[in-house]
């Protein structure tokens, strides 16, 4: 009887990706010139496990590639070879190559054979001792009908790329729909490309929907670019590194030179080659996300999202949590049996026993709910583990010396939060690397150590998780922020702002359009999108900064997105849920206490400040029969978009935990509403989107 091995593929891929993370983390901690046997053994074991599993499942191309890595690592751990920076860089590139190979196999796509051959050549060059500096595989090797020696492969690759770069490049740039939501702007990329050479851009607008279907936060355009000049592909890829995973990118030389397509390696010295099609370079995608083709953008985007969801649909759970869940289920079964016996021959003298049973069932249900929620909890290290490599790569490109400190990696948070918080954190850390930390010479001149520090910290506070990005860089200049806001017309010149409100300016849409072209120390590029993404998770973001000392950005998020602590409010005959995290206070008022401002709406004076008032009956057009409009009501003071405002409701009903149901998945998106829940009496209550209501009221 044959065994279907495909049923084990998902577990194999999960273990491989975990092994790759361990390899990457170990390589980043290796000391050059020193042989740390424990670290190298960890890296070696991960490579050995991937090779063994690949061979078992028939993925021979992965097994053969990993065997070369294993050989190099074995020589390092035996002391036959010293750890050098070029070797570490080649191994890091090999980890990326392995990740791409495994992702392609998992998604049933073709492996990029050219990329694999280039990384394999670099590995063999290190093994043969011919690499004296960093070997970076590039996509345009020299045309040859003879098998090149490994010793000359790197030199030939560089020579061919120089030949191609003298004429220029043709670039096909197709952003995904969510590109703008990650804080990136194509115009900035084109501006930087234009500085490298002569740029010509042709926009493709065939995917732009009709006006009434248009979402201003989605990017429906793509571009065909022509860059003429003596430019290398690495310079182009460095510019587009900011949008890795958020676009489809093809880079081809205008001269269209031929490329080599390696055949299987016969030995460690010689590789057979043949002439093949024009080169094609694709920006690396994030782990586990498949790459759609350019000519089927929309269909494959949908397929990509499905595959990505499938790849992350499993979760590893500690057996102690499973045992606790089983115990809770057992308690519920016992209580249910007891209540069943009471109900079989129920008499009034059993009312006390019935009440005790129901109270016990309520307690067990609450414990069961908590136990199930604990299963969804994952350590934040699943996100944090990606950033040492990011800091290593970007700091090397910027010629900065930066150390990343991770604190609280074992802090647990809901799986959904872990999956969605990555993009905002990537953007914030990139800003700290690029704009926050100064160049080594500037730091020394300012009396600081030349090596900057970025600290990524996570901890629990109440029912929330707090993630802080702390750097010891130049900090934010309040005067320059104010000047930029005035220049762009975002604030009135007579307005008086507190320090916190000045820092909040960088979250305003449009504030960061030209940050790269000014001398303001950044953090503004796309920060409005970052805040919206965090608010969509039910969280908020705040900034504390001191000029010359550094900046702290704190993100406050709920521990779970499945359950919400909310305040029930009555608006006419309807019930709405206001998230407790957004509520500052509640005040009983009468109509006479409101101030009408011509053409501006209504305000309420609270301790010397005037709060804008949003009438919930008017926003949701609530017509009430049982509860006619009254001259009295309650103002629920909430914080949204960095400012206070008041929701005018009829009555406060009480606080409760509610289970969030997606309104968009079951009905459609409703502005001002983030979800819905089912109350104890079976009725449906809408959960208010506080930032969305503030934006709606402004319009």
Give a quick set of tags describing it:
699 residues; alpha+beta; Four Helix Bundle (Hemerythrin (Met), subunit A); Heat Shock Protein 90; 4 domains; six-stranded mixed beta sheet; 22 helices; 24 strands; 40% helix; 23% strand
Question: What do you see in this structure?
Answer:
- The chain is α+β, with helices and mostly antiparallel strands and 699 residues long.
- The chain has four domains: 137 residues, HPT domain (Four Helix Bundle (Hemerythrin (Met), subunit A), Up-down Bundle), CATH 1.20.120.160; 57 residues; 180 residues, Histidine kinase-like ATPase, C-terminal domain (Heat Shock Protein 90), CATH 3.30.565; 136 residues, CheA-289, Domain 4 (OB fold (Dihydrolipoamide Acetyltransferase, E2P), Beta Barrel), CATH 2.40.50.180.
- Helices cover 40% and strands 23% of the residues.
- The protein contains 22 helices and 24 strands.
- The strands form six sheets. The protein has a six-stranded mixed sheet. A five-stranded mixed sheet has the order 8-10-11-13-12.
- Helix 4 packs antiparallel against helix 5 and helix 10 runs antiparallel to helix 11.
- The protein is globular, with a radius of gyration of 29 Å.
- The chain starts with 8 loop residues before the first helix and ends with a helix.
